[in-house]
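Hi, here's the filled form for the chain we discussed.

Project: internal
Contact: R.S.
Residues: 174
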Amino acid sequence: LKVLAATENLPGKFFEIVTGHHRVQAAIKLGWQMVPAVVKHMNDAQAAIALTADNSIKKDLSDLDRFKSILMLQDTGACKTGREIAATLGISASKVTQLRAFGALPGEALNIIEASPLTFGAKMVYELVSQDFHLRHPDLVLEGLKQLESGKIKDQSLVTRWISQKLITSKPRT
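And the returned structure, exactly as it came back:
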């Protein structure tokens, strides 16, 4: 069992779990009364880096989860530049750019993605945002995401093509 890390939330009273949330949940389900832990004194930025490092080794981490890690690293001041974020997450700067595209989507689109995060990758979201589909045709973006989630669009690389096709077929003929 990998040891979890905690930091003092209120000195001498409570501890906040920084890494190992799933391990604690598993221990509770097993009926354990105690789990091994290391208490480290961390500020918010240090805790953000520790949590990000712990999460980055997970194979089932979605691109939406990686985007949330970027927000946490930025909000805590742990990372100020895309290069710092890339180094912390162990990804390329271009991947950071793609991941940041999630932040441009409207809330309704993020809700669809949140329901099935492994279905939607950063590359597809970046394509939608870089072509301004999210601004110029938000209804088609939402419909395209729903079509992908339902399986009517078979691959996320086809969503922008589906939207483009809808735009072509909806143009009035002169």
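Let me know if anything looks off before we file it.
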